[in-house]
Q: What sequence folds into this?
């Protein structure tokens, strides 16, 4: 904890680092992937997030308040956050019997819902730094601009970032299985990273003008439709004892920022952020419940037959 760091910042760092340990522990223990793949997938997701965040900060799109540890102008905890959110979303979609091409749509949607409940609170959790008040991060917008002070393009970027990395990692897994070479489990996450970074930057440069709320609504609608049309069953039932990251990561993020909002009464001047956070929390867990329930039902029918 750096000198003068707000308590909420420090607790956020502790929570995210704890979730990283949980993801690593349960990921290795579960053995759904080789241990090396678990560690490397998490690592490249963190590097991927830090790299894109660093580019955005350097370009002046937004800035971060001081945190304990920073890497490339970005708090380390932000990159770790990208890692655990993406990792837990992919764990859930891996458990569902749905076409591989459709799983990144679900991963991106789940990550987006976490961000929807996080950003509007984080920018309002402000403290004095170098003579000016600032939240955990800031786009420099008025708090009533766009989505309660958060650019629509930010949410769209979240969807695209996770969608690209999910596709890249799944493509790498496919190659490792296809060639049946153990050494590929060591390098496919690195290959995924080298593919995902330039693809995202190319998309950003090409379609940045289309990053608005209409595109966001379209992608969310398409994601929901694709996911629930394609969930045909489940490969195995998820439990808290074996699959804690699937449930704990979204629960921790949503509850942390809901609690922070109510504790500091940040919603009193902007009641919409409370409704937004509650909506994101409810929809995220509704998706986990409905998709899992539907998959369980299909599996039960198959077993009964």
A:
């Amino acid at each position: 904890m750096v000198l003068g760091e707000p308590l909420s910042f420090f607790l956020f760092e502790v929570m995210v680092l704890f979730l990283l340990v949980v993801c690593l522990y349960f990921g290795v223990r579960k053995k759904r992937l080789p241990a090396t793949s678990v560690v490397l997938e998490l690592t490249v997701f963190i590097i991927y997030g830090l790299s894109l965040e660093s580019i955005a900060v350097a370009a002046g799109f937004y800035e971060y308040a001081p945190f304990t540890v920073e890497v490339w102008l970005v708090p380390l905890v932000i990159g770790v956050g990208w890692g655990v959110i993406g990792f837990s979303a992919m764990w859930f979609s891996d458990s569902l019997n749905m076409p591989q091409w459709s799983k990144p749509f679900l991963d991106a949607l789940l990550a987006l819902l976490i961000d929807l409940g996080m950003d509007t609170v984080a920018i309002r959790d402000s403290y004095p730094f170098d003579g000016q008040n600032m939240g955990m991060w800031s786009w420099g917008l008025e708090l009533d601009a766009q989505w309660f002070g958060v650019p629509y393009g930010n949410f769209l970027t979240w969807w695209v970032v996770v969608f690209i990395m999910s596709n890249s990692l799944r493509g790498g897994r496919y190659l490792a299985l296809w060639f049946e070479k153990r050494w590929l489990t060591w390098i496919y996450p690195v290959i995924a990273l080298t593919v995902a970074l330039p693809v995202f930057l190319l998309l950003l440069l090409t379609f940045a003008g289309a990053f608005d709320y209409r595109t966001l609504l379209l992608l969310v609608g398409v994601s929901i439709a694709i996911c629930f049309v394609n969930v045909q069953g489940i490969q195995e039932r998820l439990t808290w004892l074996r699959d804690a990251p699937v449930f704990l990561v979204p629960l921790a993020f949503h509850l942390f920022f809901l609690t922070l909002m109510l504790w500091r009464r940040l919603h009193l001047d902007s009641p919409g952020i409370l409704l937004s956070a509650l909506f994101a929390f409810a929809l995220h867990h509704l998706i986990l419940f409905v998709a899992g329930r539907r998959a369980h039902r299909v599996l039960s029918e198959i077993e009964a037959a």
